[in-house]
Design brief:
six-stranded parallel beta sheet, globular, Rossmann fold, alpha/beta, single chain, binds pyrazine-2-carboxylic acid, binds zinc ion
């Protein structure tokens, strides 16, 4: 067991982000065994779960004439439009069956308000509405995070950037993440995280 001040943050390892899912990330399911194995090395494990109501504003289906992966200006800034995914209670929103969810101390659900998306485990996409994760970690005395999961360039990226910004010593295990890679977004995310002081391992 490593130090009690370090948690493993497992981002969105759900069926809709795995091959065959609504927003499939290439090789998304390949990382599951490695994540399960890594859990053994951690005192604390936190999972996030993308959890949208039907008709969520980030779904292209809610915007007439718009296609998935187009970008639209939302009140809080540019928002990528996605295929309908991770709808509350659906099979696609479930964690991969092989993921060892028994080890989770906490499951943070995000994206549950219709009008606002939430990539980061810490803040919704307005970058100011907190999920409560920061308080949870701090009150448990956790100051270091290792991040894994899906997708490298969206939810992992935004979670790691916020974690670093909040002062957590943050590492992303790139081998246990997979990316969507929209127009070079994967490289941009890796560069941005490094610049923000996130260790890419
Ligand atoms: C994610 C797009 C939309 C992710 C979630 O988990 O990276 N990406 N919702
Ligand atoms: Zn989502």
């Amino acid at each position: 067991m490593p130090a009690k001040d370090t948690a493993l943050l497992v981002i969105d390892v759900q069926y809709d982000f795995c091959p065959g899912g609504a927003l499939a990330v290439e090789g998304g399911d390949e990382i599951v065994p490695g994540i399960n194995a890594l859990m053994e090395d951690f005192h604390s494990v936190v999972l996030t779960q993308d959890w949208h109501p039907a008709g969520h504003a980030s779904f292209a289906s809610q915007h007439e004439g718009r296609q998935p992966l187009e970008v639209l200006d939302f009140p809080y800034g540019p928002q990528v439009l996605w295929p309908d995914h991770c709808i509350q209670g659906s099979r696609g929103a479930e964690f991969h069956d092989d993921l060892n969810t028994d080890r989770a101390d906490l499951i943070v659900r995000k994206g549950f308000r219709r009008e606002i998306d939430s990539y980061s485990a810490f803040f919704e996409n307005d970058h100011e509405t907190p999920t409560g994760l920061e308080g949870y970690l701090r009150t448990r005395g956790i100051s270091k995070l290792v991040c894994v999961g899906l997708a490298t360039d969206f939810c992992v990226n935004f979670s790691a950037l916020d974690a670093a910004k909040l002062g957590f010593e943050t590492t992303v295990r790139q081998d246990l993440c997979r990316g969507i890679d929209l127009d070079g977004s994967l490289q941009a995310a890796l560069d941005g995280m490094k610049e923000a002081g996130v260790a890419i391992a």
